[in-house]
Amino acid sequence: MSEKAQARLDQLCTEYDALAELIEHGAADDDAEDKKEAIEAEIEIIKARTEGYAADDIARAGVSIWLDYSGDVSIYRGLLRNDDVTAKPSVNSKDGAAETEKAAHSAALLQPLTAHKTAALQIEMMHNSEIALVAVVHSLLLSAFYSGASSQSCLQITVTKEYLEPSFASCRSKRNRCCR
After folding, report:
1. What is the pLDDT of residues 68-111, one digit of tens each?
2. Coil, strand or helix: which one is 87?
3. CA neighbours within 13 Å on the CB side: how many for 74?
């Protein structure tokens, strides 16, 4: 963001805060609410101009174009392949050396926390049978009607088709032998 845009944004934020305080205390005039909305809109415009991808991110990123289930085009920008994703070094302010950021929590801590969360969700599903039924039906319908969509469900349910014709044939032959 340029210095001029940042100065304008700071000025608008100050005006917005002053108007909001006046409105809150009931000391504002009739046009204060309209002025506040206009300032808010201008702040959003300035912020929208500054939002975007950095040049190095644009060079690394790609786009994915899909046709969704209704035939509409969906465009996803700013995607990175797993191979292209690397930890960005952060610059240490003291000596300018780069250091990589560590994970917020260790794997040894995350594993029991995940187990506790899973157990809590299982208990809640056990106590609320209607939600459990909805989750099961949702998972079954995903696997039955949308190939590859079973990963969209939190439940791991698989549907298999058994072809029973050979079994019926053997039952008929045994029945025919017994009945003679």
Report:
1. 777 788 887 777 777 766 645 444 445 555 555 566 777 888 88
2. coil
3. 7
Rounded Cα distance between 136 and 153, Å, is: 9
How many CB atoms lie under 10 A from the CB of residue 38? 13
Contact assessment for residue 91 and residue 76, using Cβ atoms and an 8 Å cutoff: no
Residue 130 to residues 134, 135, 158, Cα–Cα distance (Å): 6, 9, 20
Q: How does 40-61 read in b/e, with b if 16+ C-beta sit within 10 Å?
A: eeebeeeeeeeeeeeeeeeeee
Q: Is the pTM of this model over 0.90?
A: no
Return the number of other C-beta atoms located less than 10 Å from residue 16's C-beta. 18
H/E segment holding residue 94: none
Query: For 125-149, how does the pLDDT look when each residue is reduced to its tens digit (9 = 90+)?
Result: 889 888 889 888 888 888 778 777 6
